[in-house]
Sequence to fold (432 residues):
Amino acid sequence: MDGAAAAGLVGRTCGRPGAGAPDFTAVMVGDDGAGTLVIRVETPNFEELSRGVLVNIGLDTDQNPATGRQDRNRKGIEYLIVAEGRDGEASLARWDGAAWDWLDSPVQFRWSFGFTVALDLADIGSPRGFNFWVGAWANYDWDSDNNDRLPGDQAGRGAATWTYQVGTAAAPPLSFPLDTGDFIIEYVQSDNPHTRGLIDWVKESGRLDRLVRVLNSTYVLPEDIHVYVQEIGEPNAFYSPGYRAIVMAPELLDMILGLFNREYRWDNPDDASNHALQAVEWIFLHEAGHALIDVLDIPITGLEEDAADQFATMTMLRLDRPWPAYSGAILFRALAQNRGGPGATDYWDEHALHEQRDTNILCWLYGYDPFEFVFIPTRFPDATDRIERCGAEYQQVKSSWQTLLAPHAKWDHPRRLVPWREGLTRWGSQAT
Ligand SMILES: [Zn+2]
Fold:
């Protein structure tokens, strides 16, 4: 795309990167009309700035290749922006005719699936327009003279550099969400041998670890959310906004297993264990839903508890794993059977009634796959009024959560909800 002279989204497919180097897929440039210039380069294969990555942006601010620094491939550079993975900061230098003169002018530099650079146009001589090129290389070694053949990618390279006329495009957003957090799971051991057995069971199943990996590879999080599988003296699971932590008590698994064995007849005792473990997976995602609503400020209407049930179920369905959600449903059915009729305090609860949480999940499962779950309307004749609309209900819940989470999704995830990058593409075309 060399030679493209456009504002906003300058180019989409850039140079050919070397293996292990940042691969540019889009370059955007614009200014805010108040003197701040912003350049954004997308490197979807490089989530964060790592040690040894060198970024250079060369600016030909008099748009005359005959003046300024003369390199083999880059002619007439007056200003150079340099950032490297050692400290994650950027510096600005001016070519004084013989050498680079390093300036004190501040340059903002952020990396999240690419890099964003912002500086005052006044610091580069307030040009009306400029030509520029961008390069990024991996494995850069400041103490070595052998950096010539490093793997890297360049955009606007050679004589046909890219051009921007100041005032012709809105600045790309500075604050691309930074992925500075993860779900972090910890199994806290207990002195009680029975509890220890339950914790080991969850741990060795790998079920929660797998869901943690799914969440971490799907969402850009501003901070860490800790997950403690820890004895607390009661069968419970909860999210604590104060501690940014989810607690999954092993006592809960014990309670569910006991309940399943009491309330249902099983052909194979392993089935009860499997459903109990799957219900714990669904409950974990329910708590993760609360956590995401909190840290990502996800807007919710209706009860947050219903929203968390939706998140847990939609996440399982996105993974093509409807059965843990089904295990969640039969847990609520067992809780309802075990309780008897609901009392006044149940009507006041933040949670819908066990009966409703059960049937909500069943409805979404039937809406998701009416062939796999064809037994639902047969087994629950009371469902007939709602069941025909469950397909539409499932689609609505699914697309609502996709819309809410899209700005926080990592767009390179193979099972991504809505490509995170779509927003950037839309922005790019608006700006041009
Ligand atoms: Zn909840």
Observations:
- The radius of gyration is 28 Å.
- Residues 269-295 form the longest helix (27 residues).
